[in-house]
Amino acid sequence: MTQFRISEVAGALRVSDDTVRRWVDQGRLTARQEDSGRMVVDGAELAAFVRARRAEDSKELGRASARNRLDGIVTDVRRDGLVAQVELQAGPFRLVSLMTREAADDLGLEPGSAATAVVKATTVIVEASEPGQGRR
């Protein structure tokens, strides 16, 4: 069974090590100490924790088919004729959206604006990686 160190859990969930330790202390996430003294989380336990958090989060989202929501900040808006290209930084992810100029204007999108990217894709490619060896 795959085991994840606290720092690996934090990296995968994009939270701090302290947040993961707090979840363990609160009993929300189960971790055990290895012979080396390191705290590790079982992969199946981590998956169950993520599913439970996702279920909690989905209650706040309402009824929509798109579940991939990334909060971020608008870093660039390029308007040209009828089209606008909007660039959003959401954590470590850079997203670019093409929309009508009218939509960008109606949303008031400008560099520095808070925004949420809602992603609905027909193709998602998943690559397996060893814990701690994920691509960035």
Automatic annotation (TrEMBL):
Transmembrane segments: none annotated. Coiled coil: none annotated. Keywords: Molybdenum. InterPro entries: HTH_17 (IPR041657), Mo/tungstate-bd_C_term_dom (IPR008995), Mop_domain (IPR004606), Transp-assoc_OB_typ1 (IPR005116). The keyword Ribosomal protein does not apply. Residues 63-128 form the Mop domain. This is TOBE domain-containing protein. It comes from Georgenia halotolerans.
